[in-house]
Design brief:
- With 191 residues, the protein is of the alpha/beta class.
- 59% of the residues lie in helices and 12% in strands.
- Helix 4 packs parallel to helix 5 and helix 6 crosses helix 7.
- The N and C termini lie close together (9 Å).
- The site of BIS(adenosine)-5'-tetraphosphate has 28 residues, from helix 1, helix 2, helix 3, helix 6 and helix 8.
- BIS(adenosine)-5'-tetraphosphate binds next to helix 1, helix 2, helix 3, helix 6 and helix 8.
């Protein structure tokens, strides 16, 4: 089994690169952002609560996303591996993920961290906002709040995985295909 985390600030290309990686390496894609947006589309109680926070650019509570990930892991007993996209986003989520994977005896092999400047992140997200219909992509202040949440709560997740020497920084600016090649090389080094 090959379990990897694709890490980076909002707009760094996690969702974009995840699509390509799961196709090439036949991994199961677990994006907490997508799972939450699906709950919002179905207008579940969880989705409606999450939307209030997402619309402010804030993270949803750890127990909510950990619960969703735990369910998704159980739903895919025959997976060749999982690509975690946008999760974990706090140190507490990282500890919970380690515990969930301990049961499977299949720890995280590597965290690939996309490195993109703040200016480029904001430009990309505003551009996506022109067509995505995502309310959290359209407002400069909300995007700023998402970047602040990343700095305050999410950057620490990289420190957590640095302790076990699992973090690899990958430049996240340039063409999507060039970045994908670099990510693929790092994955194949560890497979
Ligand atoms: P996410 O869905 O994870 O949102 P994101 O960080 O904006 O997505 P991503 O980073 O994947 O976008 P991408 O770069 O691919 O989360 C949304 C919200 O959900 C969070 O703010 C939070 O409230 C909540 N949430 C999710 N997970 C959570 C968790 N674990 N705990 C708590 N709360 C959680 O794409 C950005 C744009 O850049 C795209 O338009 C793309 O086309 C473009 N792009 C990509 N690569 C490019 C390149 N190389 N050059 C130019 N443009 C590029």
């Amino acid at each position: 089994m090959f379990n990897l985390i694709l890490f980076g600030p909002p707009g760094s290309g996690k969702g974009t690169q995840s699509e390509k990686i799961i196709e090439k390496y036949s991994l199961v894609h677990l994006s907490t952002g997508d799972l939450l947006r699906s709950q919002i589309a179905q207008q579940t109680a969880l989705g409606l609560e999450a939307k209030k926070l997402m619309d402010k650019g804030q993270l949803v509570p750890d127990e909510v996303v950990v619960g969703m990930i735990s369910t998704a892991l159980e739903e895919n007993p025959n997976a060749k591996g999982f690509l975690f996209d946008g999760f974990p986003r706090t140190a507490a989520q990282a500890e919970s993920l380690d515990k969930l994977l301990e049961f499977k005896k299949e720890p995280i092999k590597v965290m690939l961290a996309l490195d993109v400047s703040e200016e480029e992140l904001i430009k990309r997200i505003l551009k996506r906002g022109e067509t995505s219909g995502r309310s959290d992509d359209m407002d400069h202040d909300i995007i700023g709040a998402r970047v602040a949440e990343y700095k305050n709560k999410t950057e620490a997740v990289a420190d957590y995985y640095r302790q076990s020497d699992k973090v690899v920084m990958v430049p996240g600016e340039g063409s999507i295909d060039d970045i994908f090649e670099k990510l693929s090389a790092e994955i194949e080094n560890r497979m």
